[in-house]
Design goal:
Elements: H1 2-29, E1 33-39, H2 43-47, E2 48-49, E3 62-68, E4 71-87, E5 92-111, E6 116-137, E7 140-162, E8 167-188, E9 191-208, E10 214-219
Parallel strand pairs: 2-4
Antiparallel strand pairs: 1-3, 1-10, 3-4, 4-5, 5-6, 6-7, 7-8, 8-9, 8-10
């Protein structure tokens, strides 16, 4: 009887700890929930940063995912405004471009343990750039109206680290095939009637390395 009591005292804390971990693991992995994320590493750059009108640069600020069992339905959106002003004695350049990006997709989740989650899936992307650019060459000042539409899709892989059952950190990499249609209309202030339009269509493969971290808050 004494030996049984001693064994119980030794193994009971271990059993309770294992049970606690199992409950914690199930609370994250087994229950349906909604995840809302913020791209914290690029929060400032998402709204004001320097970029060209054809550069994909992880523009998503807000992420939302609905998780049911081992499948996640996700979407993300972002807005950015380009401010570039370069003025010197020879040439002047002023940019102002607004960009809106959206993506939606599906994830398949694989929990490695109570803290780490691996997921993989695919996204469909849409983007739009609108704005004006201005530059000077000698005595001529040119204004450029920019319109660009982007569309793409591709696979992705990501990983989450659960700090608590409610809060996680997340990063991911993607491999997107992007098509962009860009129209640039040039106006010469010295010659008001002189208008030149340049239409460009591009198809590009854009691999994305994990370069941003999002903080995820989980709701049930």
């Amino acid at each position: 009887m004494k030996k049984a009591a001693i064994c119980l005292l030794i193994f009971l804390p271990l059993m309770l700890q294992a049970q606690k971990r199992t409950v914690k693991k199930q609370s994250i992995q087994k229950q349906n929930h909604i995840e809302i994320g913020l791209n914290v590493s690029g929060a400032v750059g998402t709204f004001v940063h320097n970029r060209t009108d054809s550069t994909y640069n992880d523009p998503y600020a807000i992420l939302v995912k609905y998780v049911r069992k081992r499948v996640g339905i996700r979407m993300a959106a972002g807005y950015s405004f380009n401010t570039v002003k370069e003025i010197n004695a020879i040439q002047a350049r002023v940019d102002g471009l607004h960009r809106v990006d959206w993506r939606g997709g599906i994830d398949y989740l694989h929990d490695l343990n109570e803290h780490w989650r691996l997921y993989y899936g695919a996204d469909f992307l849409l983007g739009s750039v609108r704005g004006n650019k201005q530059f000077s060459e000698g005595d001529n000042v040119y204004k450029v109206s920019v319109k660009e539409n982007l569309m793409g899709f591709g696979p992705l892989i990501g990983i989450q680290y659960h700090i608590t059952p409610k809060i996680s950190l997340q990063t991911e990499a993607a491999f997107y095939l992007m098509q962009s249609n860009t129209t640039k209309t040039y106006y010469n202030n010295a010659k008001p009637g002189e208008i030149y339009t340049d239409n460009t269509e591009q198809i590009r493969v854009l691999p994305g390395i994990p370069r941003s971290v999002a903080i995820i808050v989980r709701f049930r």
